[in-house]
Amino acid sequence: MSNTFDKKQVYGGFGVLGLIIVGLGAFAVPVMPVEQTYTEAEPYETTETYTEQVARERTVDLEYETFDFTLGEAPLGFGSDTVSIDVRNTDNEGGNFEVAFDTCTSSSAELTLSDQNYVPAGESVEFSASTEADLERDCTQARVSPGTKQETYYEDVQRERTVTKTREVEKTRTEKVTLATYLRK
User: Fold this and answer.
1) Fewer CB near the terminus (10 Å): N or C of the chain?
2) What is the SS3 assignment for 90?
3) In terms of DSSP bridges, do strands 148-177 and 32-61 run parallel, antiparallel, or are they unpaired?
4) Residue at 1 is within a domain
5) Cα atoms found within 13 Å of the Cα of residue 162, Cβ hemisphere only
6) 134 CB-near residues (< 8 Å, 6+ apart)
7) In terms of domains, do 133 and 79 share one?
8) Please, how many CA atoms are within 13 Å of residue 43, restricted to the half-sphere of its CB?
9) Closest Cα partner for 64 from 14, 31, 99?
C-alpha cells in the first residue's frame, strides 16, 4: 500500500466537507425574513378633567334681630317725639348698624330719621331718633341696615390638566432567522 493520495479522493473529501459546511451554514446563518408581532408600552399625552375646591371671599350681612320698637310722643307742643328700636347682633362679629325710621307727621308729610351705632357681637344697642314734628304711630316703621363681614366659602371648580399615560400598542418587526428556526415554526 502506498502513501500517495488520489486526487479524486482528496477533492471528493473536500467536496463532502464543503457540502457539510454549506448545509450547516444554511441552518446557522440568518437568511429567512420573518415578521414578528409584539406589544410595547407607549406613552401618550391626554387631557383629563378634575375638580378642585377653591376658596372664595364674599361680603355678607351680619345677623341680627330687633325688638322693643317704640314711638314716644310728647304732649302737643311740649318737646319732641322719639322713635326707638333695640337691635341685637346675633352674629359672631361686631359691626356698624344703621336704622332708618320711615315715618309721617300729623300733617301727612313723609319723614326719615336715622341713627347709627356699633353693635358688638352678641350684644344689643338701642337706636333712636327725635324730631319736633308730631309723628303718626301707624305710618312709622324701622329699616335696619346691618354691618357686613367677609366670609370664606369653597366652590368646586372644573379644571383640566395634561397627563402622560401609557397604552399597549401592537407592533411588527422583521427579523432574519436561520432556516432551522424558520422550519421549526
Assistant:
1) N
2) coil
3) antiparallel
4) no
5) 3
6) 73, 76, 81, 105, 106, 107
7) yes
8) 4
9) 99
d(CA 45, CA 23): 52
Share the mean pLDDT of the chain: 84
DSSP 10: H
13 in any annotated domain: yes
**Structural domain that includes position 166:** 7-54+156-184
What is the band of 26 on the pLDDT scale with cuts at 50, 70, 90? low
Judgement on whether residues 71 and 119 belong to the same structural domain of the protein = yes
Report, in angstroms and rounded to the nearest whole number, the Rg of the chain calculated over CA atoms: 51
For 78, which DSSP code? S
pLDDT at 161: 94
Q: Look at 39 and 175; give whichever has higher pLDDT.
A: 39
For residue 27, what pLDDT band results from cuts at 50, 70 and 90?
A: low
Give yes or no: residues 138 and 83 share one domain.
yes
Given a contact cutoff of 8 angstroms between Cβ atoms, the answer to whether 96 and 115 are in contact is no
| pLDDT of amino acid 75 | 57
Mark whether 74 and 121 lie in a shared domain.
Answer: yes
Residue 32: closest CA among 174, 173, 138, 165: 174
Residue 23 has pLDDT above 70, yes or no: no
pLDDT value for 10: 54
**Same domain for 175 and 117?**
no
